[in-house]
Amino acid sequence: VQGTGGSSAVSKCSAAARGYIQDRFLRLLVGRRRRRAPLVHRGYYIRARAVDHCVQDFLLKTQSHARTQILSLGAGFDSLYFRLKDIGLLHHTVVYEVDFPNVACQKATLIKRMKELSALVGDIGGEGLGAITFSGEDYKLLGVDLAELSELERALEEAGLDNEIPTLFIAEVVLTYMENSRSDALIQWAAEHFSQACFLLYEQMHPEDPFGRVMQQHFSQLNSALRSLAQYPDCEAQQRRFFEKGWTECSVMDMNKFFTCFTPEEEQQRVQALEPFDEFEEWHLKCSHYFVLTASKGMEPSWTPLLSNMTVPHCDGPVRMAGSITAAVCAMHSEISGLRRYGHHSVLIKPNVILTTGGFGEEDGHHCRMRNFHVLIKHAGYWKAGYMKKEDPDKRWDERLYHTVSCLSNSLALVVGGRASPSSAGLGMLWLKFPETCNASDPGDITVELVSLQSAAEPAALRWRHSTTEVIFKGKKYLFLYGGRSAMEPVLGDWYFLHTQELSCTVIPVDGPVPQSRHSHSACSWKGGVLIAGGLGAAEQPLGSIFFLREFEHGFQWQTVETQPSLIPRYSHTAHVHDGKLLLVGGVWFHSSSVPGITVIDLMTGLCLDYMINVEHLEWPLMLHNHSSVFLPNEKELLLIGGGGNCFSFGTHLNPEPVSLSLSSILTSH
């Protein structure tokens, strides 16, 4: 448990070094320096921002009191006191910090050694008295185990804590490491013994969904299990807990809501531009698995730092499910890995032959950008997997992620866009050529030839997380290239019509309401046009709109598709059209109470139904974002391939094998 405090201090320090948070004291308190990933920087940024927002609100609301105090429980190597003192917010406030005796001793030694720190505090002696390891005018550092409540109470009393003045308790990922009976006792003690009390809690939730399972497993492997989760799995349970333990006001929200409601737009943009970033799914999942809670009692006026005048329409309340669909591991006839990957693309190149290219995943036991072309062939009811022979003399396959592959005939496919790293420019276009006929029973028998192409349309293809969809205009086929993002533009809203024969951009007039820019949306061919659904918009907010681009007199026209009820905003899903119904598969949304399963939209009536995916037959968490899916219309079977990602600092999860869903029950026409 002490190790978690050290590693979180290192992460905060790295975030400060990159400009996410302003904190010049962390580097003095943290011995080792490591550069963390941008995803970890964002995670610690939102944590620091939530704590600072609530602490400063407490200091502001209690300005008129002669004295106030802050008690930081399990403070570790946090720099809160030094930051507040430095910006002049501690005029009449004493800060008490409590942690394990050896942590408190280490911190005390550091403060005495560092001139910049000791000068701010002013050492008045008094350490060595009971549990006190360092004592300043307005700062006391105590070494006590929080689980020993009577010891804690005695130590705080000796250090001068006053239970009649406004007191803010802070527990930043601390209580969850204690047994529930002990953390509950602490929450209750704070409410009972202090006449004017406020509590700030920041920790994990939602242990049972796929991300939550990976998160739990990580902490268990560190031997620091998250103990609150079983009893208090969500915001509602935590809120009930505080009411039952004697607090009169309590508000709580997850970090997606906090970021949306309590971070000004220009600050959101500043943070989003600090480093090249392309892990939106994991960022939003991390934020939906952490909450910030504030509770108070006896405060006049009441302390409610999490009450916002902004309403967030999309997060509250459970999602109504129309039923469930059972997932089963694919019936395979060969043991071959190669499909543990994300950000790849799968396409049906011939009946019962699926080609999967690109992405990031596991090859020969290590993680890398995938070079192999993977084939699944269905033969006599079973899938056979293998690698395709790849002829690539010019080394054109730049190990890409988030590209598209469109089949233009039974022997030709076009690869468009994709990226290597998020800071590099997007990649262009490439032909894949297959033999017209092949004995499609053995994956190794199929050869693909990669052919580079010179095309005036190349600049249009330098993007990723876009879509390319076949449309028909005046009887001719075009590829409609839409949206995505590039190294220069965080989100694109433009489109091109590529004539499939000579790959030139053709100008075709389009009118109607233009969809807002988006990436990670879905696009399906329908009635000669395109259905665009969801996506991530300009402010990194999921979109719930559906558009139909349809052929119209002299060109195309955008039309909005209205659904009943309206579609829950989502992105990073896949989509298919069958028999007048649009199917949206998986993805990420801000409803933290459940994960997206399959949404069926009847394109005639607009009826929109959500189905959950029943995973009881799978032995591993099924993460349905950055996956691919292939729909086999005759069997009404949906194949889910790959998916997953880098789960914050909890390790990488890749779905280990393809999963099959039978959709006949939900696609039968009533």
TrEMBL record:
SUPFAM superfamilies, per database record: Galactose oxidase, central domain (SSF50965), S-adenosyl-L-methionine-dependent methyltransferases (SSF53335)
Alphabetical keyword list: Methyltransferase, S-adenosyl-L-methionine, Transferase, tRNA processing
GO molecular function: tRNA methyltransferase activity
Reactions catalysed according to its record: 7-[(3S)-(3-amino-3-methoxycarbonyl)propyl]wyosine(37) in tRNA(Phe) + S-adenosyl-L-methionine + CO2 = wybutosine(37) in tRNA(Phe) + S-adenosyl-L-homocysteine + 2 H(+); 7-[(3S)-3-amino-3-carboxypropyl]wyosine(37) in tRNA(Phe) + S-adenosyl-L-methionine = 7-[(3S)-(3-amino-3-methoxycarbonyl)propyl]wyosine(37) in tRNA(Phe) + S-adenosyl-L-homocysteine
Biological processes per GO annotation: tRNA methylation; wybutosine biosynthetic process
Major enzyme class: transferase
Gene3D superfamilies cross-referenced by the UniProt entry: Kelch-type beta propeller (2.120.10.80), Vaccinia Virus protein VP39 (3.40.50.150)
Pfam families to which the protein is assigned, alphabetical: Kelch_KLHDC2_KLHL20_DRC7, LCM
Pathway(s) the chain acts in: tRNA modification; wybutosine-tRNA(Phe) biosynthesis
E.C. numbers: 2.1.1.290, 2.3.1.231
Function: Probable S-adenosyl-L-methionine-dependent methyltransferase that acts as a component of the wybutosine biosynthesis pathway. Wybutosine is a hyper modified guanosine with a tricyclic base found at the 3'-position adjacent to the anticodon of eukaryotic phenylalanine tRNA. May methylate the carboxyl group of leucine residues to form alpha-leucine ester residues.
Self-association state and partner proteins as the record states: Interacts with RNF144B/IBRDC2.
Family: Belongs to the methyltransferase superfamily. LCMT family.
Name of the protein in question: tRNA wybutosine-synthesizing protein 4
Annotated source species: Chunga burmeisteri (Black-legged seriema)
